[in-house]
Structure formats: C-alpha cells, structure tokens
Amino acid sequence: MKKFRFPLRPVAVLRAHRQSRAREAFAASVHAYVQAEEHLATVRARREELGTAMHDGRRGNFRAADEAAFWVAYRRVAEDEMASERAMIEAHAKMEQRRQDYMAAHRDVRIVEKLEQKARTAHRQEAERESQQELDEMGGYRVARRLAASTVISP
Predict the structure, then answer these.
(1) What architecture does CATH give domain 9-153?
(2) pTM (two decimals)
C-alpha cells in the first residue's frame, strides 16, 4: 500500500496561516472595541458627575463665574462623549469586518479539510480494494492448485 499524499497540503498550510492571522486581528479588534466601550462609560460617568455637581451647586448662592466654568467643562465633556461614542461605533464596525474576515478564512480552511478527508477516504477505499484483489487472487491460486492436484491424483 502506498503512502497517502494530499496534493493540496501547501494550500491547507497557507489557509491555516491566513485563518490564524485573521483570528488574531479579530481578537485585537474585540479588545479595541471593549476599550472604546469602557472609555465611553468613563466619559459618561464623568458627565453625570459634572451634571450632578452643577445641579447641586444651584441650590446655594448663584455665582456666574462658577456657572460659566461648569458650562465650559460640561460642553468639553459632552464633546468628549460624542467623540468616544463615534470611536466606539467605528471600533464596532471594524470588529464586525474582522469577524467576517475570520469567518471567511475559517470556511476556506474547512473546505480544504473536507477535500483532504474525501481524498483520504478514497485512498483508503482504493487500498482496501487492492488488498481484496490480492486476497481473491491468492484464493483463486489455491483453488486452481487443488483442482490441479485433484486431477493429477484421479487418473
């Protein structure tokens, strides 16, 4: 029986390497997305704290300079929040694209794996067929020898 050799082995290696790179890129994009979400949550918490401080400060004496400073700070925090939200949306879109790339690479690897599995099955069936032919041939020789031996003794 000859050894199994899969002719698409180099393709399988390249696709597996591409899949591994796509998996790493997807993991990095997931990490970036999580960081963007955390940053957005931090900015939103800071905005809420500032809003609460502004609201609580209005209970006492009104100081125009303090109020103006609070509004400038509040606008800056609100702009940071919008920028963080945009960054999170971009990170999510990039993560989805990387996920699609990874899924495509994974599909490509599975296709080659299925082809290899079919080739191995065909190789095994061919080897079994050859083995069965050899056994049939040996059985035929035995029958022929017995017939030849029985015809020699009979006359």
Answers:
(1) Orthogonal Bundle (1.10)
(2) 0.72
